[in-house]
Prior knowledge:
By secondary structure, the chain is an alpha/beta fold.
Amino acid sequence: MKVADFDFRLPDELIAQTPLEKRDESRLLVVNRTKENICHGSFPDLIGYLTPKDVLVINDTRVLPARLFGQNVKTLGLVEILLLRPFDEGQWEVLVKPGKRARVGAKIMFSPQLACEVLEITSSGGRLVNFQFSGDFEEILSTLGETPLPPYIHKKIEDPERYQTVYSNRSGSVAAPTAGLHFTPEILGKVQDLGVAVVPLTLHVGLGTFRPVQSERVEDHVMHEEYYTLEERSAQIINERKREGGRVFAVGTTSVRVLESVSDDQGQVHSGSGWTNIFIYPGYSFKVIDALLTNFHLPRSSLLMLVSAFAGTSTVKNAYEHAIDQGYRFFSFGDAMLIV
Length: 340
């Protein structure tokens, strides 16, 4: 299967640079997989597709203020660091810019309370660093760090909370699970009033999620690892609802990756935590999810391949063509698509 099959042309003006004034004002394109038809609406219309037996699975991860700006102690050159994931205590895999100012052994100072030493260069060109700090690391990050935005967003947002979901509470991501950005407390309240179970899980989103696949063949792509947690109570509710005939609505591809990673051949999910590098592309047999709420994704991305696996490649291609023709907003701050 060719990666080029998942390419498409997108006018630059359709890449949303800022969030809408209100989260739930986004448009909603609804794709019916069985009937292969498309209809247009607004995000609150999601409620009309749910029934009291269903379960809505959300990713409660929170984006770290993971971008730091420091100075090479020896050369005094400025260095930008982006945290990717933690290893041993104090050690993180990071991206650096420019790389020449972060060679092995280099020490980078961010403030009197925070510095790091470069331990090694990773296989992907990043760095493994060891942080030295006085005080609580997350508190220092909240003071010194900036919330990272995807490279296709060129404007700073006035309120960094708009790049967090309203239900985010477990810090660890370097990018937001963007399908959840449309929800407001009011929408979630209406969903629950209907009788739908709203169930959290956690997947700490890494940058690899948003990067285009570089190989020519889909099958040759090696997926990055991301850390997940599914609590016992969440697993119980999902399994109970499925047994009672309810459907699993996954909010975002990140929720899908966890659910499909922790499921058995009978479609039951099991609690636990760990690292997943599951790569879902056309030909995959879904075991858990029945519907998917998602945003519009980058060309040649693993996210687009996952959506195509769920809805069908030709169906998704047709839906994206409709979205472009109708001026939908794309990517992180863009509009939403519901696949049922």
